[in-house]
Amino acid sequence: MTDNINSAHGKEQNIKMNLLKWLNEGKDPYSIIYELAKYLETVSSEPGYADIILNDIRTVYGIGLNEKTILSDELLEVRTRLAKLEEAFKQATSDEVQSHLKFAIEHHKKKIQELEHKLM
Hints:
By secondary structure, this protein is an all-alpha fold.
């Protein structure tokens, strides 16, 4: 979405057009909020703003309000990261690196258990 910021219609018109498109496609409202946050991050030159919004969505709507779609999306992301960490652990040649990766792996496994429990 942020690719169109400087196109011929102007950045404000593009975000309006994208918003209508997303609504007509039936896009998940949380995804729309995140896309808007990425747009605002870009136009405001405020790196990290979209990540803050995503974290808040996950905390308030996912963990706080037990919104299943958010929890499921987060679970998928955590599982994907866990698989990458486990692969990196297998390839690590340093004990120090393995130690750091092992800590991260255990943390991801606990997060997966937490999310699975909330999805029951």
